[in-house]
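Onboarding guide, step 5: your first structure request.
Type a short instruction followed by the sequence, for example:

Predict the 3D structure of this protein.
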Amino acid sequence: MSTTSPGKVTRIENAIVWTGRQIPGTADYAVTDAIAFVGDRVLALGQAARSMAADHVIDAEGGFICHAFGDGHVHSIFGGLEQQFAPVRGHGDPQGIARAVGEWARAHPEVPWIRGEGFDHTLAPSGIFHAAWLDAEVPDRPVVLRATDYHTVWVNSAALRLTGYERGVTQPHDGEIVCDEMGDPTGTLREWGAWRPVYDLMPEVPLEMRMAAIEHAARSFASSGLAWVQDAWVERADVNTWIEASTRGLLTFRADLALWADPNSWRDQLAGFSEDRARVAAHGSPALSANTIKFFADGVIESGTGALLEPYCDCPHSKGMPNWDTAELALAVTAIDALGFNAHIHAIGDGAARMALDGIESAIIANGPRDRRPVIVHLQLVDDADLPRFAALGVVANFEPYWAKFDSWQTELTAPRLGELRTSRQYLMKTLVDSGATVSFGSDWPVTTYAPLAGIQVAVNRRMSADPVDEPWLPGERVSVEQALAAYTSGVGWQTAQQDEGMLRPGGRADVVWLAKDPRAVDPMAIDEIAILGTWSSGVRVHGG
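The system replies with structure tokens like these:
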């Protein structure tokens, strides 16, 4: 990482500077040709910047400058830890995953529990993975693998035994221990209530591994133009992890920590939420805050745990598995809202989206007006009746745009469970933009890539490749490049109440990204290929140079 001296003025010129400020009464955004900044603040734009004396002058050679990207929903530590566990991504079948896990286990005989994160949960029929497949490679130590959806876990027989999961096991109210026709656990665990007891048995991840995870995340974010993230699932022990990372100077980005609310014990957590927020504030780092509470309203459609308004097509007696009772979620959201926190609610199914909106509306009614920034995230399905409520209630709609393509998740698991009509109503990004709602983008990394340019490419194309056979999926829900840029900048800036609201303007924070080409001018299917030449976080150059 290179730094910029606090009193030195940097000017970037000969650039297309996309400010992110929409010109009133138009669909256009203000553009100029230069930017100057000193310390962590923007000094001037355009002619004013060009006429200003500068200590460092960068010729952008016609490149594109905009506010550095923000990620409205990411899991920094999880993404960094994946690199340190058994390599389970990128395999073509369950046996390939098991072999890779076996090889890693044999190379690490000192590790008591074998972990892996991010295997493809579409590779087994109905997403059911069997303990026996892992037993063939690792029979003597527990193996715990988490799927790319982070809601499904695959374990071997040793892990089942240690957890006490056997024939006739009592099903938790907030999860599913998938069993075969004889009542024996298969090795597939869905949602918190099923896999949390397994994770509770595992030894704590060592501090240095967690520090390495944040270092990996920092490098990844800087190289992709990210300067701010909403870390969307922080349990109490990891508040210390973040403070330690800040103390060591590892944070080249800013992060707000969303503290996880347990539906089974949220009342007991309230005092701790306030204590942790105060502890982070007392730490005094401008890179850290803890102003958000994370709720999981439901699971995921691919596992049949997303909460729907109408039953699943392949399971007509089930509408999914909400993690919260509707009234209880409303009480919890109202309680944390009264404490001044923002709610950040995972809602995949249309039933969960309605539950989340109802909870936020209850908090507004109970607590009265204030500058709140509630967020509902993912929004794979939203009922027509609920779409206008986002703008009306001031709820930010956070999408992970890289998901908005018809891939193997859709063909193998999602579409068969939703049916044709609901399959054609997923990720209504353009509809919500046009409704006047604030839309922000995120990645949910490590579920999918953290790279904003990859997300923008999918958002504006709704397809995976330029092959003519790969037609756009729901083309009416494509957004423009500028709308996608805004979702990754001003949308996230509004979500997080940043002082500059994610726009480049004098007095705003000097979070800047320099792209080699204008993403509005290239082939829309080549946006992800644009080189990122520089990233500045609070005026410090953290990538390029």
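Each response can be followed by summary notes, for example: The chain is about 35% helix and 20% strand.
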